[in-house]
Automatic annotation (TrEMBL):
This is UmuC domain-containing protein. Pfam families: IMS, IMS_C. GO terms for molecular function: damaged DNA binding; DNA-directed DNA polymerase activity. Residues 445-471, 514-541, 566-606 are annotated as: Disordered. It comes from the Eukaryota.
Amino acid sequence: MDDRNMESSCSTCNEIDGEHFKSIIHIDLDCFYAQVEMVRNPELRDVPLGIQQKNIVVTSNYEARNYGVSKCMLVTDALKVCPNLKLVNGEDLHSYRTASGKVFLVLQGWRCPVEKLGMDENFIDVTSLVEEKLKNANLNDLIVMGQLYSEPSAECPCGCHNRLKIASQIANEMRKKIYDELGYTTCAGIAHNKLLAKLICPLHKPNNQTTIFPQHGANYMSTLTSVRSIPSIGSKTMEALISQKIISVSDLQEAPLEILKKHFSSDMAVRLKSLSLGEDNTPVKQSGKPQSIGLEDSFKTVSVKSEVEDKFSALLQRLLVLVREDGRIPVSVRVTLRKKDAKRLSSHRESRQSQISPSIFTLSSGVLTVTEAGQQKLMAIIMRLFTKLVDLSKPFHLTLVGLAFTKFQERMTGRSSIVNYLMNDISVQSVLNLQNDGDASITSMDYSAASPSSSTTTDLSDAEIEPSPKKPKKVNWIAKKRCLAKEEVASPSKLKVGELRLNSKELEKVSELRLNSRDRSLTPRASPAKDNFSDASDSMKDLEDGACNDCPSYVDKEVFSALPDDMQQELKSMWKNPTSSEKTRSSPRKNKSKPNSIMKYFVPQK
Ligand code: TTP
Ligand code: MG
């Protein structure tokens, strides 16, 4: 009997409807870098095309794949199988990043959570949209758009088949829009969870989509020949599984839980088992700006300090361009090395990170810049981290160096700037990246490319050299309200009443960003910028519930709550006196008696 026809029982669907109620789409761009080049230059469309980085073809179009050119092939080998292969240098990632951002924007048009994975993949949770569409759908007319992994012998009582049929139609619309607006073809996977949506996506590539019903999840998983196909199983977990002769996903399905528990924690053993059966309940997390911005350079071997310095210097130059485009001010830098271990004939990664002073960066006419002296400071920190990772008194062999800015301050306009207070994203979008990238735990699904064993250490000693930004009490409180308690809050400036010296640009920014209350609703998620900060939305709700019930409608209540108590009192008493309040609102800059009164910043934009 065909494996695909062996459905798992669905008689308990209603009891476990928590497992089937979601509808997830995974979209992957076909031969991504190659398509970007082909859209840019139509002459490349009908020729076999390879994208070259160093001596490797990182991807190729499907024309070239027909000749046997595969991803990550050596250029020399690719030219052997396809002598007329057209090669385009793909080392400058700028246009790929731009294309990736545009696809993300198109997908956001459906107003569902979109989680970006790498540059050319996105998960979209269309559960709510499907529920909406289901209300008006004629169930007899529903069909699966694109391919279906396997015909079901019976309807699932929980209704997931109809939901996934609608999801397949939404996926089709999304793919069509990406093609119509940007010219890129894509593949999609449609399933009730992220795991199956991602894994089923490439089944009919290119330019096609595949839906899988929950009952066939375990069957499909059993066709995967390596446990490594499962996202979040990295090299260490795979090694441990192989040592138990668990190689394919079906081996994992059959492995007794007790055996797994001997080699992994109990939670992890259970999780491995669930994954092998196609079960996964990780949520689609709305993506915002990347948590870190980094670049790596790999090579055969480097064993001399000055060469390492040159590599880092080149990386830093390129990284600063990316940071400028991003616009956030970095407050932490991470150095990564891949060391060749001659004895074990293997290599491993090590990282170390350090705080950096935001003052290294300057904002000039809205553009982030670093002076020559600032760059020297950064290089000094980078080389100091390097010497902590490598014992220079002994020979060393590196095969990769990497540099990343790992934490950011959203905006910084001056040490004592009120701007830092009067913005909702007042402190930092920061993430501490201290866990092993690969295999330490799989309690939450990590869909990012699994990296080889690696470790990152935060270098606290460097924090002394580059002083740690202070954490004012008030801002820490706001961070807590936003459920950022575990994250670090870095260097928002402290507001003192006597230090209110806004220059005109800051004032403009404040007015523009925070005080245009006529255009803003105070409901959570009203502002598009908020979509990246779902935790912030919650905090906003809390604040709205209590802190400033007497505030006039044009006042941002979260901003109000962030002000020192005495300032809040000053404002409240003014609002209680309509005459003075109105005067201040209509003519804030003419308030001669209190030139720096906070009142003038609470003026709706005209
Ligand atoms: P993939 O999605 O793996 O490949 P792809 O989009 O080129 O092809 P497919 O049609 O099979 O999805 O990777 C996305 C891009 O990432 C790819 O175009 C080039 C780049 N890339 C690298 O830089 N290094 C690599 O090792 C791989 C696999 C991809
Ligand atoms: Mg792709």
